[in-house]
Write a structure and sequence with these properties.
The complex is a heterodimer.
Chain A lengths: L8 E4 L5 E6 L11 E6 L6 E4 L13 E6 L2 E6 L8 E8 L5 E3 L3 E5 L1
Parallel strand pairs in A: 1-9
Antiparallel strand pairs in A: 2-6, 3-4, 3-7, 5-6, 7-8, 7-9
Chain B lengths: L2 E5 L2 E3 L5 E8 L8 E6 L5 E7 L6 E3 L7 E6 L4 E6 L8 E8 L7 E4 L3 E5 L2
Parallel strand pairs in B: 2-11
Antiparallel strand pairs in B: 1-3, 3-8, 4-5, 4-9, 5-6, 7-8, 9-10, 9-11
The chains are: A mainly beta, B mainly beta.
């Protein structure tokens, strides 16, 4: 399985909204609702933000939202805050009990 | 409080082997599907292995199949990863993580990771 495609970087000013894309194929993102998003600050383990395309685990602010259209999933961060500066990764079920991750997007809060 | 603690990492020569462990606490480990994910220095996340709650089914990424083996001991609340024939590109932080539920492929709890360095 090939990695999902994410933009290497994204940025926005405090209070703005930013959307990060995650493009796969009909064999992964387009074929299943098992798309997740993770946030990772330097030196820390990843944190689950979104699962099953749109669902948020308890404790994750509703500023984080997910969506999907065709083979592309998206994470939107609304009302950007300084602490949102981090790396973001998408993942998708890819069939046959395999998982694939995106290459990651570094989000900078200007 | 859910806690996952990896151990067993270290520096090893190419061709060597390591057994990583992941000690779980604060949740019903025997009911949880688990995963090993690694991250090379400065790189992204890579899934390498997934195991069902009973351990009866295991799955491996193509990049490591044949060289690794995942197992668990539910009586000891522990997960293991055996890595053989280590190569330089196996150098990474190895994380264990807990699936939100079986087959959700969404990992809500992670350990702090254990670093494996493969170098001559």
């Amino acid at each position: 399985q090939s990695a999902l495609t994410q933009p290497p970087s994204a940025s926005g000013s405090p209070g703005q909204s930013v959307t990060i894309s995650c493009t796969g194929t009909s064999s992964d993102v387009g074929g299943y609702r098992y798309v997740s998003w993770y946030q990772q600050h330097p030196g820390e383990a990843p944190k689950l933000l979104i699962f099953e395309v749109t669902e948020r685990p308890s404790g994750v602010p509703d500023r984080f939202s997910g969506s999907k259209s065709g083979n592309t999933a998206s994470l939107t961060v609304s009302g950007l805050q300084p602490e949102d500066e981090a790396d973001y990764y998408c993942s998708s079920y890819a069939g046959s009990n395999h998982l694939v991750f995106g290459g990651g997007t570094k989000l900078t809060v200007l | 409080q859910v806690q996952l603690v990896e151990s067993g990492g270290g520096s090893v020569k190419p061709g060597g082997s390591l057994r990583l462990s992941c000690a779980a606490s604060g949740f019903r480990f025997r009911d949880s599907f688990m995963i090993w994910i690694r991250q090379a220095p400065g790189k992204g996340l890579e899934w390498i292995s997934y195991i069902t709650n009973s351990g009866s089914a295991t799955y491996y990424a193509d990049s490591v199949r044949g060289r690794i083996s995942v197992s668990r001991d539910n009586a000891k609340d522990s997960l293991y990863l055996q890595i053989n024939d280590l190569r330089a590109d196996d150098t990474a932080v190895y994380y264990c993580a807990r699936d939100l539920r079986g087959w959700a492929f969404a990992f809500e709890s992670w350990g702090q990771g254990t670093l494996v360095t493969v170098s001559s």
